[in-house]
Amino acid sequence: MTRHLLKDSDLTAEEKREILQLALKMKKNPDKYREALKGKTLIMYFEKTSTRTRLSFEAGMTRLGGHGIFLDKRTSQVGISELKDEIRAIERYADIMMARTRKHATLKEMAENMKIPLINGCCERYHPCQGLGDALTMIEHGGDLKGKKIVWLGIANNVSNSLVQTCTQLGAKVTLCIPEKDPGAVDKDMEDEARKNGLYAETQDMSCLKDADFVHTDTWVNMEFINDPKFADEKERRIKAFMPYQLNKALLDKHGSKAKIMHCMPCHVGYEISRDAIDHPNSLIFDQAENRMHIQNAIMVWLLQNS
Ligand code: CP
Fold this sequence. Notes:
The chain is an alpha/beta fold. The protein has helices spanning 13-28, 52-63, 83-90, 104-112, 128-142, 158-169, 188-196, 232-242, 249-254, 275-278, 285-305; strands at residues 41-46, 67-72, 96-100, 118-120, 149-156, 173-181, 200-203, 214-217, 260-263.
């Protein structure tokens, strides 16, 4: 059976632990894995812009002896022909595929029509590679996630969904300190599942920062709307509503927080995060970016071994 990673619940807690252990081993001993994907081809399909996802997957394939090919919706035939036919052709050239799409439904349609593993490179609902990569970074900087306290500051979105699902599965408590949720990202089933084990909470009380081990944030406005004139009023409204939730040094100091600072990037300096938080001694932001590659390398090896 072909294994895909379209959403975080596609992997059990045990499988996530296996992938995290593999990522740690691969990162520690790169020479041992130089030919792990020798002769394999990854197609990287994008409907939206990216820095980290594109570079980390392509650099990851180079590191493992394989090859990554970039395919953009705007400069290919994928948006013109029927998706299922394009996918049935694309898979003839590749061993594994990653796709960043606007809609989760597009990923589901792709997976239904392909026999090679498909990895979600971020859609409106989930960003599973980010959730697992962030788990890897937190484990490296704090040990086992069991019993750790993680605060998400700002807007609940696709990245926080993946963080909640993966980290509560691994035993961490995740508190969303948020005034509102991105309507396009809300997943009630995921929230109910996370609530069952008592490791998920929502609040507007910033005192949750006091004993947090890690604090995360992300953009208040989805990247495809950030410069869209039609979204200008909503962007202004969100900036007013979310500014009290900006991740900055003064806020952490006010609550006596020693939390390690995390942001999946791109950062919007002066909005969801301040310069003094990005450059803070507790900042793990650039380790986070690097770990996208290490976790994705492990995900690709694991999916190919288990399909
Ligand atoms: N965090 C993340 O996915 O970055 P990019 O949008 O640059 O790929």
